[in-house]
């Protein structure tokens, strides 16, 4: 039974409590807005519940197991190392619970009202929130849409017990003996690597010429070398054709160079991209401008064509990154509060938690060239760094991209252990307008991986100490 309601007034409503929405709500509340945040599922969204956080927990567990089995050259010999996957999943769930509970506490602490249910726009200042038992109308001055995205389902690979998406891959009850991954992007490669480390026999099928197409070949070649050592079979230019499913597994059909092949597995994981959640919330009826793919068109202040409606995260242009969504959430909240904020994406990093890790920020050599910028690309290898040697993790390099005329840092790429943490320093350098000399003259603790930034900066200046 739907109960009649009287409208509740609020300044700003945020729809979606993922890393974009909850951050936007908190910042808007901090800036004096009366805020209501609407979420139909779990606080923290895909990222905290079934994405970034649980996948990194699974990746860490895989690293621990793999290291225990392969540290003989360091004098560490372990026998009969086993994976208690129930315990792994229990630990992973504990990590998620701590973070999602933290998000709820932060929202309440900042006096944002949390409302559960599905939102539907009535007009540019009104929406209804519905659950199974009731519906409530809210009026607002401003709206921030942060509804996120969902995995794309291929018609010939309908999701089922053994045809799974990334959410299903994170919730498996056992480590698959064999796993086929369709899609060699960052999600497929990360999860494929995690299960390979946990003992699965993994096959990655990628339709493009290479996996991890968002990163330079110099970087991905090192990752592919690592995958090969783990026994992962990477098949590129492969077109997935269909799947036969039984109670015990799947047979995946695919085509390479005109030849049809099959591969058997316990599960097939489909990671061919994500679709924005912009349907069924009333956007088209309201006249919000979108692309053919359902991506909402926004300006540099995250504002749609309707002046009091903003959109952030996976539902607008750009890569589906949690930290991009959070950044845009802050911008939108500040604009609503009258501050002169707008997005600048040059300093946003992209990271892939493969073995070894990949990270990039700002310009690459190629993108700088496209814009007519003459650059110096300065590389420094992990193999020449004392900390990397002591970690027994010497694969990889850092490449610093500086403007030739003045040494201004405009980009960086890292492949190697700890790349996900190291990239932050270079992002700060770009945001702060620092030169190679600024980084080179910054004293870095020894022995640390951070010294690689200093060393690469010295290479850019033409005066390296630790390589010829």
Automatic annotation (TrEMBL):
Coarse class of the protein's main subcellular location: cytoplasm
Cofactor note: Binds 1 FAD per subunit.
Recorded catalytic activity of this chain's protein: N(6)-[(R)-dihydrolipoyl]-L-lysyl-[protein] + NAD(+) = N(6)-[(R)-lipoyl]-L-lysyl-[protein] + NADH + H(+)
Enzyme class: oxidoreductase
Known EC number: 1.8.1.4
Keywords: Cytoplasm, Disulfide bond, FAD, Flavoprotein, NAD, Nucleotide-binding, Oxidoreductase, Redox-active center
Disulfide-bond pairs as recorded: 47-52
Ligand binding (NAD(+)): 183-190, 206, 273
Positions bound to FAD: 56, 147-149, 314
UniProt GO MF annotations: dihydrolipoyl dehydrogenase (NADH) activity; flavin adenine dinucleotide binding
Domain (Pyridine nucleotide-disulphide oxidoreductase dimerisation) ranges: 348-456
Compartments reported by the entry: Cytoplasm
Cofactor: FAD
GO cellular component annotations of the record: cytoplasm
Catalytic residues of the enzyme: 446
Domain of life: Bacteria
Pfam family name, one: Pyr_redox_dim
DNA damage among keywords: no
Domain FAD/NAD(P)-binding: start-end pairs: 11-329
BP GO annotations: 2-oxoglutarate metabolic process
Other observations noted: The active site is a redox-active disulfide bond.
Family to which this protein belongs: Belongs to the class-I pyridine nucleotide-disulfide oxidoreductase family.
Annotated protein name in UniProt: Dihydrolipoyl dehydrogenase
Source organism of the structure: Rossellomorea marisflavi
